Amino acid sequence: MNAPSIPDATLQEIESRGARGRDVLLLRQWLGLNIVDCCYLLGITTPKWYQYQRHPDQLIDDVSVSLLVWSLLRFPEAHFLPLFPQPAEVYPLYRETAAHSGQRLPTPGTAFALLLGRERSATRRWLTVTEQPPRVSPTVRRLLFALRRVIHGRGVPGFDAWIARARFEAESRGLDFDSMSSWIPDDPAMRKNWGIRRRGRQPGDKAAAEDGN
User: Fold this and answer.
1) How many CB atoms sit inside 10 A of residue 13's CB?
2) Which of 156, 183, 186, 210 is the most buried (most CB within 10 A)?
3) DSSP symbol at 20
4) Does position 194 have pLDDT exceeding 80, yes or no?
5) Cβ contact 166:115 at 8 Å
6) Residue 86 CB partners (closer than 8 Å, separation 6+)
C-alpha cells in the first residue's frame, strides 16, 4: 500500500540539500508513525532516532539512512510498511460482514470495539467525526489491519472465527462477551490477580503516550 505523497514545495526543498535530522522527523510525522515503527522503517536504533531529534539541522551521519529517508519521501511506492487503518475505515466492512455472520452479536455497533480488545464505548469515540483523527493505540490499528485482511481473504467464515475467538478469550477471563461492556472485570479480586487497575494509566503508559500512542 503506497504512502501519501509529500507536497511539491517540501520535496523541492529536500532535493536542494543533503538529508538532515529534521527529514527523519518529517518522515515520521507525515506517515503517522510512532518512534518504534519509524526506527524499524529506517533500520536504526532508538538512541540514533533521538540523536536526529536533538540535532535536526545536522546532516544524517549514515549515508544509507540518508538515501533511505530521501527515497521514502521522494517515492511513495518505495514505502514498504503497511498503512494501518483508522477504525472508521474498517467499520463499514465490519458492519456489512456482521450482517451475514452466523455468529449473532448483541448490539453489533458497539461490539466492534470489543472485537478489537477495547471497551464498547470506544466505538463511538472512534467514529465521532472531528478535525483530528482519534487516538488509537498502535496495537489496535495493527489489529484493524489484520481484521480487514481476514475479512477480505476469508469472508464470513474468517469473521465468524474471529468472533468465536473473542468469545473464548472472554470466557477464559471469566467474562460474558455478549453482556460485558469492557475487557476489564468488575471483580476487584480478578483485577488484582491480573495486575490491572480499574482506572488510570498502567505502568509504562507515560512512555507510550510520549511515543504517540
Assistant:
1) 11
2) 183
3) B
4) no
5) yes
6) 126, 133, 134, 136, 141, 144
